[in-house]
Amino acid sequence: MFLKTADADLFVSECGPTGGYTIVAHGGWVGSGELWVQPFEKLSKRWRCITYDHRGTGATQHRGGPIGPEMLVDDLFRVLDALEVERCVLAGESAGGLTVLQAARRAPERFSGLVLVGARYEGALSTGARKLAEGCKADFAGTMQMFVNACIPEADCAAERAWAHKIVMRSGARHAVELLEGLAGVDLSGELDKVRLPTLLIHGAEDVIRPVPDSEFMHSRIAGSRLVKLDGVGHVPTITRPSRVAAEIEAFFL
After folding, report:
1. Structural contact between residues 77 and 70, judged by C-beta atoms closer than 8 angstroms
2. Would you tell me how many other CB atoms lie within 10 Å of the CB of residue 153?
3. DSSP readout, 75-135?
4. Torsions phi, psi of 177, nearest 5?
5. Domain 2-253, what fold?
6. Which 3 state secondary structure label does DSSP give 252?
């Protein structure tokens, strides 16, 4: 369904039974909710699974000004309210981790736990990120191909790379840059020890986009969190190792 707002039409999808466990998932930088399709195939046997294409990705139409972090958090709560989700496990991949952590800081009572997959806790623009933004402006298609290749280094995932490239190409240069540069002022490193929710951290050991020490740092700051490192896996295990991701979520929360 499309959730209509004053300046956007948010594409929202859900599957699975109602009345039990609920998980709501946010995609990554230019990765839409489609990143969670395969784990949700597994989880939907027992979970109500909800995801959506955040602004600048997928089928969502954004008509407002520059896309910023607070706008993304506001949209998350719009989705929860529209689908009458009172409380859920909240999941985020990569840059989506920042949206998840900000939402948990704003209204922790709405969430029963967090899942952070190769996630960010700060948005500072590194030299590599600045080059990525410039690449998007100069050659969006070529930059996205290089980005996807770096995200998915697994030798057995040629089909998954092709699929991921189609996902990110549903974004565009303008929105990709806004989504990247908009995070520059966000730094939650000093807030992590205030997270009081059960938190599962999943990180590919071969991730070159967000290095494993990022999740190790979060694990050291979030009391009671669990860190799962996936050997031989890159930045997007929701696409390349979906069964493992689903199994880890169920093992942690059920």
Report:
1. no
2. 17
3. HHHHHHHHTT--SEEEEEETTHHHHHHHHHHH-GGGEEEEEEES--SB----HHHHHHHHH
4. -70, -40
5. Rossmann fold (3.40.50)
6. helix
pLDDT in tens, 70-100: 999 999 999 999 999 999 999 999 999 999 9
Residue closest to 73 by CA, chosen among 17, 81, 236, 134: 81
What is the helix (H) or strand (E) element at residue 176, kind and residue range?
A: helix 173-181
Report the residue count for the chain.
Answer: 254
Is the Cα torsion angle 65, 67, 69, 74 positive or negative in sign?
positive
Q: Tell me if 95 sits within 8 A of 69, measured CB to CB.
A: no
Sorted by where each begins, the domain ranges of the chain are 2-253
Answer for the pair 53, 72: CB distance below 8 angstroms, yes or no: no
Name the residue among 72, 26, 32, 9 with its Cα closest to residue 165: 32
Residue 128 has a pLDDT of 86
**95, 122 contact by CB (below 8 A):** no
207: tokens are 């991730």
pTM exceeding 0.85: yes
Structure tokens given for 51:
């995801």
